[in-house]
Amino acid sequence: MTLVSDPVGPWRTLASDVPYRGRRLQVHRDQVLNPSGLRIGYDWVETDDQVRVAALVADRILVVEQHHYLVGPLLQLPGGRIEPNEEVLASAKRELAEETGYRGGRWTSHGWLYPLPGLTKMRVHLWMVRNPRPGPPSLEPGEDDLRVHEIPIAEAASAVAAGRVRCAPSAALIMLAVGAT
Amino acid sequence: MTLVSDPVGPWRTLASDVPYRGRRLQVHRDQVLNPSGLRIGYDWVETDDQVRVAALVADRILVVEQHHYLVGPLLQLPGGRIEPNEEVLASAKRELAEETGYRGGRWTSHGWLYPLPGLTKMRVHLWMVRNPRPGPPSLEPGEDDLRVHEIPIAEAASAVAAGRVRCAPSAALIMLAVGAT
Predict the structure, then answer these.
(1) Testing the interface with A: which of B125, B175, B178, B181 to mutate, by most A Cβ within 10 A?
(2) Which residue of A has its CA nearest to B154?
(3) What is the spatial order of strands in the sheet that A39-46 belongs to?
(4) What is the predicted pLDDT for the residue at A7?
């Protein structure tokens, strides 16, 4: 299962344009040659990377519940957007503290995932922290309805298997956390 | 961990616009009241739902490897875009057959995930198939570099844990498949 190590790859960019610039996202429209040599238009989205955190407190994991504008009520691991010029680990610690109040502990990186590699280069960086200390949360504007659950890790894995954790990076990281405990 | 059953939720849409319409994606710009009662502009992306398939052949799982325009070489489960008016299961069977040649077998749904619930309502539908039969693949234009690997399921789980399966829905579904076998 060794990956082809061709650093260039079979795609070629012929031209680029940015037909939409918003505050949260930009749309790029490239003219490309695909691996079959066909010239096509390729629309893609630029948006900030995010972090998700598996915070393990004894045999429990912290899960946040919040209404999302687009998809309604959702269970996720704590996390969010990485601010401009913010280090990834600093962002993970900030988001965990803001949403749950937990701080400190032993942090380990679990790499990153591409949520939608055909649509965006955006990455969700995965972190795990063991035994952080509880404290007061400091929610951002718009997160007033956020609730924090402390769930036995095996129960969180069952929730993923039952389709109750719909956020893809959160679901993957919960399953990785089960394997790591 | 029961979800709030408020079917409406704390967000309100005040106005909607579509500032970009492409072939693969549309950008919506809504004016909304967030859960704190603040009026904000909310950009989001509309794009077609996808499917991913965990195809289990004895103790092995089928993994495809392909160069992506945006992110380079990538390991994923077979899958792709659901065509207009296509049933989800029909799409899963079509994508598996096109990419790997495998057909038939016992199919079960594992729900769906939101890859990026803050950016798009788009869903990735998860399916599992046991003991499909091999046959000739029929790749779409642009997929000439696609390669199929048959990997022991435990090795696939290790690849996810080692950060070698970067596609978030694929990573989650591999971990779910491990738990289901």
Answers:
(1) B175
(2) A179
(3) A12-21, A26-33, A39-46
(4) 46
